Amino acid sequence: METKFCTVTRHDEELYRELMKQNGWKLNVFRKYYATFCILALIAVTAVRAVIVSRGTGTELIPAARAFFAIGFAAAAAAFVLELKNAFKREEKTLHLKAQQKMQQSGKAGEKEEIHWYEDCCVIDTEEISSRYEYTGLKKVEEGDKYIFITFGGDVTVAADKNGFRQGKPDKLKKFLDGKTGRLDKI
Question: How far apart are the C-alpha atoms of 181 and 183, rounded to whole Å?
Fold first, then answer.
């Protein structure tokens, strides 16, 4: 069999970051704005307490309670603005930690995969094993910033580093695989 394309992919943090983005990972709303939610929760608890006390004594809310609510809402607004400015940094930090965690869980941290693309299959060679995947099981091909993600039947996703081509070019591999699947997705 003649090799049409040959790529080398290293399992590093950058690969796992892009794979997580490709799978739609995002920081949830509570983690982005937790300080705002905490301040609003404190305001709610204090408001309930103030209403209960005022009903028990038969008086209306004291001016200090009203001032507390005004200051509390101003603090919540300020916290929201600050969190909005820092949301990107927090998301990047969390993405870094999650990518490191996934890399360690996979057990492939720092490993290299050499992928040979033939007319009827692709063969992935690592230091320990060699795996063969037929194109009949090819589900989808997605292009990321630095990688091309090829998903086969089951949950097998192969990442081809665009800068790791030893033979062939990324554009030609995409066209080749597009012919095998009939579609090409771009993320």
Answer: 5
User: Which H or E element spans position 21?
Assistant: helix 13-22
Q: Give the Cβ contact number of residue 5 at 10 Å.
A: 20
CA distance 150 to 177: 9
> Closest Cα partner for 121 from 109, 106, 137?
137
- The reported pTM is 0.60
Report the b/e string of 11-46 with b at 16+ CB within 10 A: bbeebbbbbeebeeeebeeeebbebbbebbeebeee
Residue 44, helix vs strand vs coil: helix
> 120-155: per-residue pLDDT in tens?
888 888 888 888 888 887 888 888 888 888 888 767
Please report which helix (H) or strand (E) contains residue 117, including its range.
strand 112-117
Separation of alpha carbons 100 and 129, rounded Å: 24
At position 32, the amino acid (one-letter code) is K
Host H or E run for residue 83: helix 63-106
